[in-house]
């Protein structure tokens, strides 16, 4: 059985992970002049958005797999669990994607006066306009095939996990077909969703691992993590995890740092959770849904008046996090039913209850 301590650690880590995703989506590296020596601004953004932040999506997949398979004890559990995910994932996916599509249509057709091609099937369901929704699309497909993942994990055990995670770690070759410009499932989400399944069957092992690390050992792991990322940046400051472009050794350094970074984050939060941060983590899914479109239209436009494009990251990234958190808190307080429907049942003034408890 999962302890409250481990459950809270996952929830807080999820908040940190979504903040890192916001950083990725608001980076301004493309505006930095790199024709000569690489500027410090580029290196800082590279370290944050293409280094530390790359732990986020694997952690999302691992967490989704862990909590889905935690209650998956037999094949007859599949349908009830899938039915629940319709409320918690499918409905928010469709509602948020439809809202963003409508706002973008009004923005382009009305404010900009530009012809906006209407293709709801593509822009709402298959390839939503907000880039982060690709993960939810991956997750829905993973949920459909989850019985096969559960069977492989249950009967092949750690062998299956070593193969699938090792395939991502060393080769990172995508083998799924494309659907509207993106892979049907990425090897990364498949590998970590499967790892989440294995961990759900070995909860005691996970708690032992994250609980046994001393402060001195944690400091050493942080140092090793920083060294891995720094060396990868030294070897390839313009790293892309595209298997057709990435050299083997930088890819291995990057992916090893991802695993280590996830472990460090979960360990820190397992060994000590701040009460207020834990309360704010209840708004993570709302931040995930609405941190990009249409919010970025306003933030980026506002930043045009006082900051150069190359340095906007340091303003628009934290602004997006703060504004979406404030919007979530306000919506839950003023329209709790709307908030709960949009977020798939996440709500009930969680932040106020936890702070006051």
How would you describe the overall organization of this protein?
The protein is mostly helical. The chain has a domain at about 1-50 and about 275-355. The chain is built from 18 helices and two strands. A two-stranded antiparallel ribbon has the order 1-2. A hairpin with a 2-residue loop joins strand 1 and strand 2 (about 180-185).
Determine the N-to-C terminus distance: 24 Å
Low-confidence stretches: 349-357
Look at the structure and give the mean pLDDT.
91
Residue fraction in strands: under 5%
Reported for the largest beta sheet, the result is: 2 strands, antiparallel
- Secondary-structure class: mainly alpha
What are the key terms here?
mainly alpha, two-stranded antiparallel sheet, single chain, 357 residues
Task: Break the fold down into its secondary structure elements and pairings.
Blueprint lengths: L3 H22 L14 H10 L6 H14 L8 H34 L8 H7 L6 H12 L1 H11 L1 H14 L6 E2 L2 E2 L3 H14 L2 H9 L3 H21 L12 H24 L3 H6 L3 H7 L4 H9 L9 H22 L1 H7 L7 H7 L1
Antiparallel strand pairs: 1-2
Helix pairs in contact: 1-3, 1-12, 1-14, 1-16, 3-9, 4-5, 4-6, 8-9, 8-12, 11-12, 14-16, 15-16, 16-17
Summarize the entry for a quick read.
It is built from 18 helices and two strands. The chain has helices at residues 4-25, 40-49, 56-69, 78-111, 120-126, 133-144, 146-156, 158-171, 187-200, 203-211, 215-235, 248-271, 275-280, 284-290, 295-303, 313-334, 336-342, 350-356, and strands at 178-179, 182-183.
